[in-house]
């Protein structure tokens, strides 16, 4: 390479940038999320669900994401080939991996099998506000029960979970519908049968956007298609006006657009066997939750609930937050759906000779976390942070002595760290402040010769410093700093951490 074509070290450096649709999370958010997940876990275990973890990577065919005309997984899923030329994919949700696990371990599992899983899922989709390519879900599923009581139980558990997290009654609702009911309506408007599977999926995905786009936006998606604010065009289901009016009327509970179209819901469902069956199941679920003490203010039937995934076969659920708050600019914000799920009786059967009934519920952790922050839930409220005790390094040739102090504190259960940088004492003190250290351990050569240590309480020192105006006063008072025998290191540190005097 000549001098003219050589790449400079600066030009060769990679650019520090975060891929679109992904986010970094620091200590405070991670700690708050951990508390939130633990609260959810407590409720799920109270209902008898047990923990399960599945890998983030599955064979692509296990996720059921193939285009019929291409030898590669469908868009929406991050995929790659391994050295055997097998397609692998990052999991799209936590349900398909569960179905694979149950099928693979079917004979050894209790039936029904009740499990919960928490982890990140990945969507190869266009990112946008509130829409990420990696996000966390927390699922609970019952596999092996066809009883509507299993669906009712998940709705009740979702309600209990939201209240345990600090969402007050009246600030949320668990809405229930049925894919059988929706299939019945689509059958009535002429798009039943296997030849219309693609159009039915387009209809479901359109109605699933009703809360976000409103009736007029969904009307376009049910018809010719819709162009969004960015100019991207989504092809519609291509239905005629009568079919669109019927579907929208049903989804809006009998009417839409100020009552311009209406439909006899019960008369409509009576024209379809599968629709009538779905309606009966919904009424049974409603009876079960009412008998258990869950009123319509907590759980109710809502025809607008669809859920966009195609594998649902029966009741579908959505946990919606109904309260309104304001963003940093004072604009009104509604969080809407923070979780959902439903019955998927055919998913495990993709791996076996017979179908296995199953139903589940999933919480969108990130969205619910933001909502809990908005209502100032104590579950995610940030407690006063206390970092580790920091042992300063004043004599570089005595690293081993300082390390022994750190090890002694750790053995006794005190979080501690050794300063590992190259700065002097002043910079080390600033480092300890940034680490939220409650106190620092100081030992120079003079203290070592006397067999002593200096303990400086940074929390008390900060309070005392507010009343000190000159360097002379600071040097004279040395606020919140005491001497102690080195042999009493652990005892004195514990006294200071508990709020007692070290001297």
UniProtKB/TrEMBL annotation:
Domain Aminoacyl-transfer RNA synthetases class-II family profile: 34-383
Taxonomic classification: Bacteria, Pseudomonadati, Pseudomonadota, Alphaproteobacteria, Hyphomicrobiales
Gene: hisS
Keyword Isomerase set for record: no
Residues binding L-histidine: 93-95, 123, 137, 141, 307, 311-312
Keywords of this entry: Aminoacyl-tRNA synthetase, ATP-binding, Cytoplasm, Ligase, Nucleotide-binding, Protein biosynthesis
The protein's name in its UniProt record: Histidine--tRNA ligase
Main location: cytoplasm
Keyword Magnesium on entry: no
Enzyme Commission number: 6.1.1.21
Subunit structure: Homodimer.
Enzymatic reactions: tRNA(His) + L-histidine + ATP = L-histidyl-tRNA(His) + AMP + diphosphate + H(+)
């Amino acid at each position: 390479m000549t001098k003219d074509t050589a790449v400079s070290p600066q030009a060769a450096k990679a650019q520090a940038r975060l891929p679109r649709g992904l986010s970094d999370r620091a200590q405070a958010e991670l700690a708050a999320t951990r508390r939130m997940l633990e609260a959810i876990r407590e409720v799920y275990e109270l209902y008898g669900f047990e923990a399960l973890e599945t890998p983030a990577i599955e064979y692509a065919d296990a996720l059921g994401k193939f285009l019929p005309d291409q030898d590669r997984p469908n868009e929406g899923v991050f995929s790659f080939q391994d050295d055997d030329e097998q397609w692998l994919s990052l999991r799209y949700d936590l349900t398909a991996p569960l179905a694979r696990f149950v099928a693979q371990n079917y004979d050894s599992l209790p039936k029904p099998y009740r499990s919960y899983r928490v982890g990140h899922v990945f969507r190869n989709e266009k990112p946008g506000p509130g829409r990420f390519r990696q996000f966390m879900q927390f699922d609970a599923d019952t596999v092996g029960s066809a009883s509507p009581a299993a669906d009712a139980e998940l709705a009740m558990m979702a309600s209990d979970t939201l209240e345990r997290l600090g969402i007050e009654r009246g600030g949320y609702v668990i809405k229930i519908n049925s894919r059988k009911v929706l299939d019945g309506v689509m059958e009535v408007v002429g798009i039943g049968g296997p030849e219309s599977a693609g159009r039915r999926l387009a209809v479901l995905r359109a109605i699933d956007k009703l809360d976000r786009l409103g009736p007029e936006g969904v009307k376009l998606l049910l018809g010719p298609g819709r162009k969004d604010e960015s100019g991207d065009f989504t092809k519609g289901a291509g239905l005629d006006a009568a079919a669109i009016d019927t579907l929208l009327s049903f989804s809006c509970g009998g009417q839409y657009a100020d009552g311009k179209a209406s439909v006899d819901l019960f008369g409509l469902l009576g024209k379809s066997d599968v629709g009538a069956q779905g309606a009966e199941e919904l009424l049974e679920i409603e009876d079960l939750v009412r008998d258990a003490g869950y009123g319509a203010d907590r759980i109710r039937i809502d025809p607008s609930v669809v859920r966009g995934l195609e594998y649902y076969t029966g009741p579908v659920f959505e946990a919606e937050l109904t309260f309104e708050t304001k963003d940093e600019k004072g604009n009104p914000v509604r969080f809407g759906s923070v979780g959902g799920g439903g019955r998927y009786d055919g998913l495990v059967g993709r791996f076996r000779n017979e179908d296995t009934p199953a139903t589940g519920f999933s919480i969108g952790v990130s969205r619910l976390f933001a909502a809990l922050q908005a209502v100032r839930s104590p579950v995610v409220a940030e407690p006063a942070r206390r970092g580790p005790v920091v042992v300063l390094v004043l004599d570089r040739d005595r690293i081993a002595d300082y390390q022994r102090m750190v090890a002694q504190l750790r053995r006794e259960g005190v979080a501690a760290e050794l300063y590992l940088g190259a700065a002097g004492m002043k910079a080390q003190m600033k480092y300890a402040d940034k680490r939220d250290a409650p106190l620092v351990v100081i030992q120079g050569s003079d203290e070592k010769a006397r067999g002593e240590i200096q303990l400086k309480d940074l929390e008390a020192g900060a309070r005392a410093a507010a009343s000190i105006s000159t360097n002379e006063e600071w040097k004279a008072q040395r606020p919140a700093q005491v001497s102690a025998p080195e042999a009493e290191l652990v005892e004195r540190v514990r006294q200071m951490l508990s709020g007692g005097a070290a001297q």
